[in-house]
Amino acid sequence: MIRRALARAYWAVSRWTLRTEQPPTDRPGILIGAPHTSNWDFVLMLAISASVGVKVRWLGKHTLFKGVMGPFARALGGIPVDRTDPSRVVDDIVSRVRTGEVFSLVITPEGTRSKGEYWKSGFYRIARETGMPVTLGYVDRTTMTAGLGPTLDLTGDVRADMDRVRAFYADKAGFDPSRRTEPRLREEDRPARGASAPEGDPTV
Fold it and tell me: Residue ranges under compositional bias (Basic and acidic residues) (predicted)?
């Protein structure tokens, strides 16, 4: 209740407008944060998630959880990731799902705030291996709006799934449009592999 009240106060005074669909709150899912072009994206994500009543988790370098910042990062939903063994991330997420924890795992597939050529495919692999649906979150400075779009169940046809993602983000510019990366995975030119998923680092 406190977080939702703070979020409402934020939107009341912010230059940004919240325009959002309601994601599922009765099962775990993945929440895409894109375009990821600024540190302000994190603030907007917290305000969005609190407004729609979803518990968020996010992946961060294990070094962020050391020292005095550790408890704060965990309180905000952070999950430490050792990038020397990223395969353990999926096991951790599956374990949380099996214990009945309901949360939205926030992933920024661009992997960096700078303009790039491809999205990283970790979100796709986690979604396929866990069966978690993917909700498309966005920031669009051209309209000064932010929020959540549709929730998708990925099929395993990488190109078809990403066509749906691209269609949604086609008019979303991010906080800094010059840093926007087009939603595209390297694996899209590979044949569809049924229940299998792209290889990639799931920590980003």
Answer: 173-192
